[in-house]
Every structure is written in C-alpha cells, then in structure tokens.
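Hi C.,

You asked whether I'd gotten around to modeling the 154-residue construct. I have! Everything is below, sequence then structure, no commentary in between.
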Amino acid sequence: MAVVFGDISKASSTATVTATVTVQNISLEMVENGTISYGTIGLSSTKDTVTLGTTPVANNNGNVNEDFGLQGTDSTSWTLSSDTGAETYFHKVCTADCGSSGSWANLSTGGYYTIVQGIATGNSQPFDLRVGTPTSTSDYDQQNVNVSVQASAN
C-alpha cells in the first residue's frame, strides 16, 4: 500500500479589471447679467433685455451635458400669465434673433421652459427676457418678477 503526501496544484492565472467612476455634477452659473432692472414703466407696457443691453448668460459649469430651463414667478401682487390683465403680467424668453422679429415664449409658474438642450460643459447660453405689466393694478410698489434658471441632466 502506498501513501502519497503532497500538494495537488492546479494551474491558474489572474487579471485585474481597472474601474473608475465620476459622480455627475449638474451645475450652472449666471456669468452675465444675473440681475435685471426693468425700471419704472407704465401699465400695459413692455420692456426687454435686448433694449436694456443686459442679456443674461448662463454657463454649464458642471461635468456633463445639460439642458437649461426657465420658470417664472408670481410677484407679491401680480400673477404670472401668458398675457396681461388686471393684476396679471407676462414674462417671456427668447434665445435667438430677439429684436422685433424674435420668437418669444411665455414663462409660467407650472414648470420649466427648456431654452437649450445638450449644452456641453464650459459652454454658455444667452437668453433675453421681456416683461409686460398689468393693464391695471392696485399696487404701484416695486414688484419682484424673478426667473429661476435650472440645469438638468441631458
């Protein structure tokens, strides 16, 4: 009877999978004209950033392509609408040829209006804003008619 002691070895080989990950950073900054003063204008009047020479510019300072959207707000006394009326005003946005022939889209409080899709990291998007004042109001104090600018994943 024979007894054998020893290691039984099997051939093997190993390799490494090199893996990396980067956390998505969705971010924007207003690089020009993040504050707009339309000044004092009459009832049923409009003013825009083209005329004022204060076109806002948003920049993608995240690390992925982004979509930019805008949303309007109600002021203390006025309701944002697609047209003007008693205690209602409009706020519109335009991204190209925004002079007298530009295509202006209404902003709302109900969601973001997309002004650009797939803007690359480090790139900027200018846009113009136009405000229209109510046909009548009981509040002649300064109103804050702010616009939110949002970056979202493309």
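If it helps when you're writing up: The mean pLDDT is 94.

Thanks,
B.
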